[in-house]
Specification:
about 180 residues, alpha/beta, six-stranded mixed sheet, 6 strands, EC 2.7.7.75, MoaB/Mog-like_dom_sf, Molybdopterin adenylyltransferase, transferase, MoaB/Mog_dom
């Protein structure tokens, strides 16, 4: 029996300062650590650290989806109301289908922790057979948001024809309908 090809997961940190080396990227490593706990099947990370630039973000998402063939692309940063926070706009620009329930759930979970979560504009969408999910930039919020939405991610990936991702049920129980 041959094993399935590992899932490819894009991890994109969107930060002017981190991309210039002025600030340590904490979001990308936090995502990688969380995925390491959640995902039980083989996977490989394709990481990028890029500035807060709408066209650059869009180009990176296209590269990861179309050329790198990432099944899941998770971004961190650029989801607030500041003028340079344009990750959701870049995500919408490149996706064929938006998945607003992801952002709604992430904000709902975050609001139980901090009232300013209402300012966050996380979203998600589908490009080809890639699911793109925007997360906030703070590592603790990354944990909360990934734990909230990840139960739906494996089945979403199944539906769009991406690689199968299995989770560690002791950490995060993925939902898949019984066949």
């Amino acid at each position: 029996m041959t094993s399935a090809k590992p899932a490819r997961i894009g991890i994109v940190t969107v930060s002017d300062r981190a991309s210039q080396g002025i600030y340590e990227d904490k979001g990308g490593p936090a995502i990688r650590e969380e995925l390491g706990r959640i995902v039980a099947s083989p996977w490989e990370a394709v990481a990028r650290v890029i500035p807060d630039d709408r066209e650059g973000i869009a180009a990176t998402l296209i590269e990861l989806a179309d050329r790198e063939r990432c099944d899941l692309i998770v971004t961190t940063g650029g989801t607030g109301p500041a003028p340079r926070d344009v990750t959701p706009e870049a995500t919408e620009q490149v996706c064929e289908k938006m998945m607003p329930g992801f952002g709604e759930l992430m904000r709902s979970v975050s609001l139980t922790v901090v009232p300013t979560a209402i300012l966050s504009r996380q979203t998600a969408g589908i490009r080809g057979s890639s699911l793109i999910v925007n997360l906030p930039g703070k590592p603790s919020a990354i944990h909360d948001c990934l734990m909230a939405v990840f139960p739906a991610i494996p089945y979403c990936l199944d539906l769009v024809g991406a690689a199968r991702i299995d989770t560690d049920p002791l950490v995060c129980k993925a939902f898949r309908p019984k066949s």
